[in-house]
Amino acid sequence: MEPAKATTGRARAKTSRFAKPVEKTSPSEVTQEAMNEAASLRQAPRPNLREESSLERAKRRAAELKGSLTSMDDTPDEFAIPAHIIPEGWSYEWKRKSVFGQEDSSYMMSQEARGWEPVPASRHRSMMPEGHYNTIERKGMILMERPKEITDEAKRQDRMRARDAVKSREQQLAEAQAGQFARNKPTISKGYEPMAMPEE
Predict the structure, then answer these.
(1) Which of 97, 76, 86, 184 is nearest to 140 (CA)?
(2) For residue range 100-135, what is the model confidence (pLDDT) as tens digits?
(3) Per-position b or e across 7-27, b if 16+ CB within 10 A of its CB
(4) Is 104:140 a contact under the CB 8 Å cutoff?
(5) Where are the domains of the chain?
(6) Cα–Cα distance measured from residue 112 to residue 164, given in angstroms and rounded to the nearest whole number
């Protein structure tokens, strides 16, 4: 039986030589780790669950608006049409839609016959308040569009009619009876002159 004991002893010694030692954590190390974890939780930012006060909301909104509002003393032209928003090849103009709240249907029909169509509000969202709007309107006026080529031709015809009217009036004055304008020769002004203002 002695040889068997010797063999068992050598095996035990060999096993103890290559076995990985078990690391034991001391109670003080466990306590320090728990304290560190608790400290990190205390330092973590907590979500702001407090409801925003009326004053805080007003200050936040004022800060948002300061960068976009114009001077408080300026009165913007609500009928101004920035040139850069007009699509190439088109012209924009304001047309009368209603008078004292009553829609002027006959006038709108005459403008449509001349080629004018309402500008869709979806094209220029910034020109109308939030909501469901199909057209762009201001105080009884509606923004309409027409091909620029047609608008230029219409303006040319207007200038021709104006010149014809002046020529017709000049001809009537020239054919007036002798002695009707004895003191001064009548003339028709074709330009603009500054008007003198009375002194106070």
Answers:
(1) 97
(2) 989 999 999 999 999 999 999 999 988 888 888 899
(3) eeeeeeeeeeeeeeeeeeeee
(4) no
(5) 91-146
(6) 27
